[in-house]
Backbone:
């Protein structure tokens, strides 16, 4: 979890010099519990853009929506798969498919279930080396993040790497409203954001399947720019240095070396 266990937190508030948090949601959580703002530094998740190179959208053909990453329950794989399957049931003529990447052996039952309800329109893939993983994501027109309609601390407080990875590759995102991640998507117009409800997600996938390419391309370009200006390892490193300086730690030698 991105927040500490309840029994650890009072001890940390008393004895920890400084808190590093991944979202403003987490920062407000600790401020409400008496941690002064000076003891908190926001350090968002970041990526190395060079590892996720921007590429043009794939040629016209079946519109592919991809999820790439971990398959834990809170990632909402059954939720997004059910919504997609419902879309293909209602609109069988739509040339669209869902591609789920990242199944491990422990997820075999869930993998078979997704393939079954997809009736040939949901493809699945196991773990992949990074280069192949990136290549497979580049074969998609959209990325997706669809947290289920269950309020959890992790869903509230996380800032997923996947969001930045999709945008860096030049893929707009279909996602459910998950606080700050969705706020970025709305503010910078990098995809489609809907409420975490089945019907809303069905309509969002339909919109993704039918959106004109110039509109998608504009979202893709805005997404890459957002990553390069706010979501890189360099930005994350600068935030970390700021926290060290607040603690009186001299990082000049480390900065010079790296």
Residues:
């Amino acid at each position: 979890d991105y927040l500490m266990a309840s029994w650890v937190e009072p001890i940390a508030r008393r004895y920890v010099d400084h808190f590093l948090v991944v979202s403003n949601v987490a920062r407000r959580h600790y401020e409400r519990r008496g941690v002064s703002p000076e003891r908190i530094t926001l350090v968002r998740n970041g990526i190395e853009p060079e590892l996720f190179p921007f590429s043009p959208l794939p040629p016209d053909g079946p519109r592919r929506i991809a999820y790439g990453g971990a398959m834990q329950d809170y990632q909402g794989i059954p939720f997004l798969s059910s919504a997609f399957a419902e879309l293909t049931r209602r609109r069988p003529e739509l040339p669209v498919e869902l591609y789920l990447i990242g199944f491990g052996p422990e997820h075999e039952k869930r993998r078979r279930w997704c393939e079954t309800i997809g009736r040939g329109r949901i493809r699945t893939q196991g773990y992949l080396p990074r280069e192949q993983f990136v290549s497979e994501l580049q074969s998609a027109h959209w990325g997706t993040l669809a947290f289920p309609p269950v309020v959890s601390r992790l869903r509230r407080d996380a800032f997923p790497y996947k969001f930045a990875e999709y945008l860096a590759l030049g893929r707009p995102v279909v996602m459910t409203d998950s606080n700050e991640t969705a706020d970025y998507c709305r503010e910078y117009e990098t995809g489609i954001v809907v409420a975490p409800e089945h019907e809303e997600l069905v309509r969002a996938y339909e919109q993704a399947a039918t959106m004109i390419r110039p509109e998608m391309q504009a979202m893709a370009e805005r997404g890459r720019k957002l990553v390069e200006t706010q979501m890189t390892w360099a930005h994350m490193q600068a935030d970390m240095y700021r926290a060290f300086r607040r603690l009186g730690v001299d990082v000049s030698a480390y900065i010079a070396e790296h």
In short: Residues 241 and 251 are 7 Å apart (CA to CA). The first strand starts at residue 19 and ends at 21. The chain has a mean pLDDT of 89.
